[in-house]
Write a structure and sequence with these properties.
Layout: E1 6-10, H1 14-26, E2 30-34, H2 37-43, E3 51-55, H3 63-72, E4 78-83, H4 88-96, E5 101-104, H5 109-119
InterPro entries: Bact_response_regulator, CheY-like_superfamily, Sig_transdc_resp-reg_receiver
Keywords: Phosphoprotein
Organism: Candidatus Ghiorseimicrobium undicola
Length: about 130
Protein backbone atom coordinates (compact mmCIF):
# COMPACT_ATOMS: atom_id res chain seq x y z
CA UNK A 1 0.00 0.00 0.00
CA UNK A 2 1.03 3.61 -0.50
CA UNK A 3 2.35 4.87 2.80
CA UNK A 4 2.81 8.48 1.75
CA UNK A 5 -0.84 9.15 2.59
CA UNK A 6 -1.46 10.33 6.15
CA UNK A 7 -4.36 8.82 8.04
CA UNK A 8 -5.92 10.72 10.93
CA UNK A 9 -8.18 9.08 13.51
CA UNK A 10 -10.58 11.18 15.60
CA UNK A 11 -12.53 9.12 18.13
CA UNK A 12 -13.20 9.70 21.82
CA UNK A 13 -12.93 5.94 22.50
CA UNK A 14 -9.31 5.09 23.29
CA UNK A 15 -9.77 1.41 22.44
CA UNK A 16 -11.00 2.32 18.94
CA UNK A 17 -8.09 4.71 18.39
CA UNK A 18 -5.62 2.07 19.58
CA UNK A 19 -7.08 -0.75 17.46
CA UNK A 20 -7.31 1.34 14.30
CA UNK A 21 -3.84 2.77 14.86
CA UNK A 22 -2.32 -0.71 15.24
CA UNK A 23 -4.05 -2.00 12.13
CA UNK A 24 -3.03 0.94 9.97
CA UNK A 25 0.54 1.08 11.26
CA UNK A 26 0.87 -2.66 10.54
CA UNK A 27 0.12 -1.72 6.91
CA UNK A 28 2.84 0.97 7.05
CA UNK A 29 0.51 3.96 7.04
CA UNK A 30 1.49 7.20 8.76
CA UNK A 31 -1.12 7.53 11.51
CA UNK A 32 -2.01 10.35 13.91
CA UNK A 33 -4.77 9.80 16.47
CA UNK A 34 -6.81 12.37 18.40
CA UNK A 35 -9.33 11.99 21.22
CA UNK A 36 -11.46 15.01 20.26
CA UNK A 37 -12.47 17.13 17.31
CA UNK A 38 -10.98 20.20 19.04
CA UNK A 39 -7.60 18.49 19.48
CA UNK A 40 -7.61 17.60 15.77
CA UNK A 41 -8.57 21.14 14.68
CA UNK A 42 -5.72 22.55 16.77
CA UNK A 43 -3.30 20.22 14.95
CA UNK A 44 -4.41 20.18 11.32
CA UNK A 45 -3.81 22.81 8.64
CA UNK A 46 -6.21 23.53 5.75
CA UNK A 47 -3.53 22.38 3.28
CA UNK A 48 -3.18 18.94 4.88
CA UNK A 49 -4.03 15.97 2.72
CA UNK A 50 -4.91 12.44 3.67
CA UNK A 51 -7.77 10.42 5.03
CA UNK A 52 -9.71 11.19 8.20
CA UNK A 53 -11.44 8.37 10.10
CA UNK A 54 -14.03 10.30 12.05
CA UNK A 55 -16.44 9.17 14.77
CA UNK A 56 -19.86 10.83 14.68
CA UNK A 57 -20.85 10.76 18.35
CA UNK A 58 -18.31 12.63 20.49
CA UNK A 59 -18.68 15.10 23.36
CA UNK A 60 -18.27 18.85 22.81
CA UNK A 61 -18.04 18.74 19.01
CA UNK A 62 -19.46 15.81 17.05
CA UNK A 63 -18.14 14.46 13.77
CA UNK A 64 -20.65 16.38 11.67
CA UNK A 65 -19.63 19.68 13.28
CA UNK A 66 -15.98 18.89 12.60
CA UNK A 67 -16.79 18.01 9.00
CA UNK A 68 -18.57 21.37 8.58
CA UNK A 69 -15.59 23.26 10.02
CA UNK A 70 -13.16 21.41 7.76
CA UNK A 71 -15.34 22.09 4.70
CA UNK A 72 -15.47 25.79 5.63
CA UNK A 73 -11.66 25.83 5.82
CA UNK A 74 -11.44 24.34 2.34
CA UNK A 75 -9.91 21.12 3.65
CA UNK A 76 -8.94 18.48 1.12
CA UNK A 77 -9.10 15.61 3.60
CA UNK A 78 -11.17 12.62 2.57
CA UNK A 79 -13.51 11.74 5.42
CA UNK A 80 -14.68 8.26 6.33
CA UNK A 81 -17.24 8.33 9.12
CA UNK A 82 -17.11 5.46 11.60
CA UNK A 83 -19.89 5.03 14.13
CA UNK A 84 -21.61 2.48 16.33
CA UNK A 85 -24.91 4.38 16.37
CA UNK A 86 -25.88 5.17 12.81
CA UNK A 87 -29.25 5.77 11.33
CA UNK A 88 -29.97 6.22 7.64
CA UNK A 89 -30.27 9.97 8.31
CA UNK A 90 -26.66 10.03 9.54
CA UNK A 91 -25.41 8.25 6.42
CA UNK A 92 -27.35 10.60 4.13
CA UNK A 93 -26.19 13.69 6.03
CA UNK A 94 -22.56 12.58 5.81
CA UNK A 95 -22.72 11.88 2.09
CA UNK A 96 -24.55 15.14 1.31
CA UNK A 97 -21.65 16.94 2.98
CA UNK A 98 -19.16 15.11 0.73
CA UNK A 99 -17.94 12.35 3.02
CA UNK A 100 -15.93 9.74 1.13
CA UNK A 101 -17.24 6.80 3.13
CA UNK A 102 -19.41 5.66 6.01
CA UNK A 103 -18.78 2.55 8.12
CA UNK A 104 -20.88 1.23 10.96
CA UNK A 105 -19.02 -0.42 13.85
CA UNK A 106 -18.17 -3.20 14.00
CA UNK A 107 -16.64 -3.44 10.53
CA UNK A 108 -13.98 -5.78 9.23
CA UNK A 109 -10.36 -4.79 8.71
CA UNK A 110 -10.72 -5.80 5.07
CA UNK A 111 -13.65 -3.44 4.48
CA UNK A 112 -11.81 -0.50 6.05
CA UNK A 113 -8.54 -1.21 4.23
CA UNK A 114 -10.40 -1.65 0.93
CA UNK A 115 -12.09 1.73 1.33
CA UNK A 116 -8.82 3.42 2.30
CA UNK A 117 -7.06 1.84 -0.68
CA UNK A 118 -9.81 3.08 -3.03
CA UNK A 119 -9.33 6.63 -1.69
CA UNK A 120 -5.56 6.67 -2.12
CA UNK A 121 -4.48 9.36 -4.60
CA UNK A 122 -3.32 6.85 -7.21
CA UNK A 123 -6.68 5.04 -7.06
CA UNK A 124 -9.08 7.97 -6.67
CA UNK A 125 -9.61 8.65 -10.37
CA UNK A 126 -7.40 11.73 -10.57
CA UNK A 127 -9.17 13.61 -7.79
CA UNK A 128 -5.88 14.65 -6.22
CA UNK A 129 -4.30 18.09 -6.25
Amino acid sequence: MNTSCAIYIVDDDESVRTALGRLLRSCDFNVEAFNSAREFLDFITPEAEGILLLDIRMPSMDGFELQEKLNALGSRLKIIFITAHAGEDDRERAMRAHASGFLQKPFSDEVLLGLINALMPENAGGKGS
